[in-house]
Design a protein that fits this description.
Length: 223
Amino acid sequence: MNILISGDSFSDNKNPHTWPNYYEGHKVINRAVGCHSNLSISRTIIESVTESDIDFDYVICEWSTPMRASYKRFAPEPYQRIKHKECVGIASFENSDVYKSFEFYTSESVWLRTLENILRTQWFLETKKLKYKFFFGWNISFIEAIRFFPELSKLINFDNWWIHETPMGPPYPHAPFTEGSEEYSGMSEWCVDNGIELEPDGHPTNKGHEMFYKELASKWIYE
């Protein structure tokens, strides 16, 4: 099976311990890069499907925080090419857009942009008749999106999402990531609720990635 993956640091292609590395017996193209915005994630999926000579069977997309904008990559070109070998040559990685920060200071604007990125990718994959799974790396609430754009939010196909439902209760160790609703939790919350500690910065540990793959991601491609 040919599997395409994109996301941010929770799925990073340069980290040998992230969950995408556990797939065996499949061809996996992982476009995930730390600090990827949702626009970059959407573009890497669409470009990889349309411009690659690989016929993908399944797509997994780990969405990032709505507040993260695309940014200009200031690191020297040779360093970027070594660091993210799987992304070399794709325009959505090498030509990131630069946004003016003030343009996205309101909650309405960042959620409109997020819904646009998610829906664009959803509709593209469905048009291509590709099976897919979407999820968040950590607790990111759709509550604001639904409040600001109730009709647009209804267009999201939640049948193809993995969402970890959990009561928030006491703050998790990754306090900066616990804002929002318990209805839309992600990989970090799943780890904590299953007794797996997180890294100090809120990222899953190597054990967390391994267990997330074994218990969840390994099964998605057969649904």
